[in-house]
Design the sequence.
């Protein structure tokens, strides 16, 4: 049995979340691994910041725009939180970029991973199914 097109797009988005999550963890771990040695810290910090700004944040903005089309029990809280989450992602990237000690970078990297994992989990388990059920056009969420 073939999935409806919206369900296929939701599956594609969830797969993208998983890929982003894997890459984000890899970059955060690379940063943490370099902290004791210092040699590759700047590059590891900038790789993480670039990834967040070029991959994570644009996806977050698209998902926030698409999420405005749905409402319902439990959904409104998720949708209202999305702009604040996006701002926090940006602030954490700025913190990593500006840090010279490594301590703030480590904390911000951990917070980035935790925030993104929570956000993607909520999107995959609650928001995307609600969008599919509402008939929302999910294709705009996959544009890059």
Sequence:
């Amino acid at each position: 049995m073939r999935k409806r097109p919206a369900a296929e797009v939701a599956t594609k988005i969830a797969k993208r979340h998983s890929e982003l999550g894997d890459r984000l963890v890899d970059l955060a771990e690379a940063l943490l691994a370099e902290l004791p040695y210092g040699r590759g810290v700047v590059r590891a910090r900038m790789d993480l910041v670039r990834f967040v700004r070029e991959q994570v944040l644009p996806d977050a903005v698209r998902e926030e725009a698409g999420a405005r089309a749905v409402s319902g029990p439990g959904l409104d809280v998720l949708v209202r939180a999305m702009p604040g989450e996006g701002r926090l992602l940006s602030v954490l990237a700025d913190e990593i970029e500006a840090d010279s000690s490594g301590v703030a970078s480590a904390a911000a990297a951990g917070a980035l991973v935790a925030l993104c994992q929570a956000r993607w989990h909520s999107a995959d388990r609650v928001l995307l199914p609600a969008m599919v059920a509402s008939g929302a056009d999910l294709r705009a969420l996959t544009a890059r």
Notes: The chain has a mean pLDDT of 90. The longest helix spans residues 103-134. The helical segments are 5-34, 41-67, 75-98, 103-134.
